[in-house]
Structures are given as C-alpha cells and as structure tokens.
TrEMBL record:
Lineage: Eukaryota, Viridiplantae, Streptophyta, Embryophyta, Tracheophyta
Protein name in UniProt: F-box domain-containing protein
Organism: Eutrema salsugineum (Saltwater cress)
Cited PROSITE patterns: FBOX
Domain called F-box: residue spans: 2-48
Gene3D superfamilies for the chain: 1.20.1280.50
SUPFAM superfamilies: F-box domain
PANTHER family for the chain: JACALIN-RELATED LECTIN 37-RELATED, OS09G0372900 PROTEIN-RELATED
Length: 344
C-alpha cells in the first residue's frame, strides 16, 4: 500500500517561496496554477522585495535590452549584470528614461500615446492604456484602503501641476482634478511609492523652496506640501541634485549632492511615515560621501531619474546614475573609496 502524499501547509509554502531569489522564482511559475497566482499577488511581491538581500536595479540600456544589476556589498564590492529574457510582445524596441515602479511593477510610455505596465521578471505586460499628449506621467500606486484588491492607479499632471488626471488599472477613463495655484510650482518627474501613496520632491518656482508632495490614491487627494526637506542651508543651490527613496520599507531617505563640490549628504526620517501626518516628519543625517572632484559623478536635475540604495550594515551608498557622457553607471561608495561600473 502506497502511503498517501503529505502536503506542506499553504502558509509555509508561501513563506518558503518568499525567500527564493527572483531569478530562480521565474522557473517555478509552471509548477501549478496556485503558485502562478501567488507570484502575481501584491502581498507576495512586497515580501519578495523586502527580503531582497542586495540592492538591485533594472536598466533599459539598449534597444530591446533590459538588464538586472545585482550589487554585492562585501569587502570588495562587485556587480553582476544579467539580461532579462523578454517577449517582444511585452516591450517595444526603444530606450525609455521615464520609468516608474511600484511593488516590482514598471510603468513606462510606449509609442502612439500609450502606457504599459510590465512585470519584467514574470514577463507580463498589461493591455496598453490610452493617454493624451498634454500629460506628464508621474507614477503608479494603489488604493491602500482596499488591501485585498489589486487596485493600482496611474497619475499624470500638467507641467505646472494645476491639472491632474487619475486612471484605474483596466480602465481607459481618466478623471480630471484641478488645483488652484497662487504660486507656480513644479514636481520631479519621478515618484516614490510608499504603501500605495505617491511622493515627489516639489519646488516653488519663485522662492525655490524644496519640499515633499504626496498623492493619496485612497482619497485621490493631492497634498501639495506634505513635509519639509532637510538641507535648508544658504549654500544649497538650484542646480544641486536631489533624490528621494524609500528606507526600511516604511521611511524616506533623501540624497542631496552639491553641484560645486560634488559631495553627497544622505538623510533619513527618524520614524515611520504616516501619509496623513507630514508635520511630524523629522530628519537625521545618515552619511556623508566625499566625491573626488575628478569623478564624473555629476549633479542631475529633478527631471532626471537617479536611483540609489543605502546599506546600513556596511555604511555603503549604491547609486545608479548617468555619467558626463550620458552612459548608465553604478557608483558604489564605501568609506573613502568610490568604484563604478558603466553600461554601453
């Protein structure tokens, strides 16, 4: 008599799979329908991203080529580059700079005034979303009041952010919002998604005051001034580089690079971010990076994408940017040493 098969509890299966590296996870999609459905859940994607042991970047570096860049922060930091196999049906042959991300999903523009949301690891793409020429696409998030539903939404705005449009996944209908503006203001082209809410670095055109702006998709309300940024010193210049990222899954980190010295300051928030209470946000200095003047690590405006990762254990900064010739680079700063890897 053959003993009956004993299956592991489903919650234990989920826990085990959430620790499997993404590159290996792709092969398990065909094991069964339940596993395939699990990999597509927002909750599972969050756990996967949170448990990633090393910083990763996705680069669009050439026609039809997307690369995963794995950064190993040991005594001798190194970089592993892996081309992600893609179906041509998912990606058009173009190099995109305006890419937004949320829970492992990438939002990008494609020809003929369309948007596409892709999961590069699972080789999936949404039906293309119809857009319009006057909009600047600023990010993808979700309604965090409906945690059991994958209610992703896309945000677009006019150049001066006096008009904004929101659409929900699976719909071609855009809802218009209008904002009265006594003081013209701008926001960066690239958002940070934290618990579904979008955040940007904003700036008043006349006073050049910099701050954080937010959009709560659960209420579809725009908070023009969510909280202040650090680095309010007189020496801060308009051309200085400013970038915002998520820290410890529930906080902000802020990168400020001086255009004159090229030196970098990293700030982090002391407590978890509450999207309803920006007044309680407090910043503290996390690290300083002295950049040699001969380095081609240049400052970039709010209109250019600059992603970075800070490692608390090794006190390292990993920065994905463009060099002075426009090539994609990964800079690794650890102590007084800065190394780089270029992509062509």
């Amino acid at each position: 008599m053959v003993a009956s098969e004993r299956l592991l509890p489903w919650d234990l299966v989920e826990e085990i799979l959430s620790w499997v590296p993404l590159k290996s996870l792709i092969r398990f999609r065909t094991v069964c329908k339940r596993w395939k459905a699990l990999f597509e859940e927002k909750r599972f994607a969050k756990n996967q991203l949170a448990r990633a042991s090393r910083p990763q970047f996705i680069l669009f570096i050439a026609q039809s080529m997307i690369c995963s860049v794995d950064v190993i922060l040991d005594e001798c930091p190194s970089i592993q580059v892996c081309k992600i196999p893609l179906d041509n049906t998912c990606y058009t042959l173009s190099v995109d700079l305006a890419v937004h991300c949320c829970d492992g999903l990438l939002l990008r523009s494609v020809p003929s005034d369309r948007l596409e949301v892709c999961n590069p690891w699972l080789k999936q793409a949404s039906p293309r979303i119809k857009t319009f020429e006057t909009a600047y696409f600023k990010g993808i998030g979700y309604d965090n009041s409906r945690p059991d539903q994958d209610c992703y939404k896309i945000f677009a705005s006019s150049f001066t952010t006096t008009k904004a449009w929101i659409t929900e996944f699976g719909s071609n209908a855009w809802k218009l919002h209008q904002f009265a503006s006594e003081n013209r203001w701008l926001i960066s082209d690239y958002s940070v998604s934290l618990n579904g809410t979008l955040y940007w670095i904003g700036c008043y055109s006349k006073s050049r005051e910099y701050f954080i702006t937010s959009l709560d998709f659960s209420t579809e309300k725009f908070n023009r001034y969510f909280c202040a940024l650090p680095c309010k010193s007189v020496s801060a210049k308009v051309l200085d580089s400013r970038s915002l990222e998520v820290f410890r899954r529930d906080r902000f980190s802020y990168l400020h690079q001086c255009t004159e010295t090229k030196n970098i300051e990293i700030w982090v928030t002391k407590k978890k971010i509450d999207n309803k209470d920006g007044e309680s946000v407090e910043w503290m200095m996390f690290m300083n990076v002295s950049v040699p003047y001969s380095s081609d690590l240049r400052c970039m405006s709010l209109l250019c994408r600059r992603s970075y990762f800070i490692d608390e254990k090794s006190l390292s900064l990993v920065l994905c940017s463009l060099d002075s010739n426009g090539y994609a680079c990964i800079y690794i700063a650890k102590g007084d040493h800065i190394s780089l890897k270029k992509f062509r």
